[in-house]
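#lab-general

N.A. 3:47 PM
ok so I finally got the sequence cleaned up, no stray characters, all 267 residues accounted for. can someone with queue access submit it? mine expired

B.Y. 3:52 PM
send it over

N.A. 3:53 PM
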Amino acid sequence: MQSYKGETLTWELIDGCVELALHREPCNEIGLKTLEELEKFVEAHETLKNQAHALIIHSQMKAGFCAGADLRDLYFRAKEMGFDKAAPLVRDFLNRIHRVMNAIDASPLTTIAATHGVTFGGGFELALVCDLIIADKMARFCFPELRLGLIPGFGGIPRLKRDLGNAVVRDLLLTGRSINATKAQAVGLVSQLVAEGDALKVARFTAAQVKKFDRATAAAAKKFMKPIPYAELRQEIEIFCELFTKPAVEAGLRKFVESDNAHPYLP
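B.Y. 4:20 PM
back already:
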């Protein structure tokens, strides 16, 4: 399948580059429907990876790249069955999203996240599976999960540790504050900082540059440079599921859901 248009995302193979566009209002929150369509993409990727040299993930939403998990959906599903009994529900969701993230992480294609605006929580984790993050100057990166009594659950901690020094990792995780694109480039998270609105354009230029090189060589170099921390990723799921049943998490999610702030994920 060289192209697909779903409710939450679209992909298309264009001149050897796969472009995966997120387009779920208001800011690409990742719920069951997005997960299902990401799983379709991973299935299609098995064919696409033999026809392409690069993958670009970007957002068509003005608010940003992705605000993370659909916490409202998660809250109401857990509330319906009881938070103390919700661990299997959460584990199933996390196992599925990890399979998606791991597949993109391990792709032989050169993968590029073109980010702008809100790149928080699970959205930040989606960007972290990519080889390169290109950010426009208005992009902000954040792990707000500790405010809810949780840790990142889509693979964020192991992948952030893989890419950055511990001081930055601990600052992002333990303070919950966001950093701007300039800071993100300074610490080595962002590979290119571009003008507002130019992230996708520059990602396309970068993909065109990648096309000049032998695909097998690029894939071999990537596999050597970018090991996937599978053991730590599995441990993250266990910690997340254990924390999810705590009263503090139910209280934090309830506060989030009941907020009348149009964008309660913002710092």
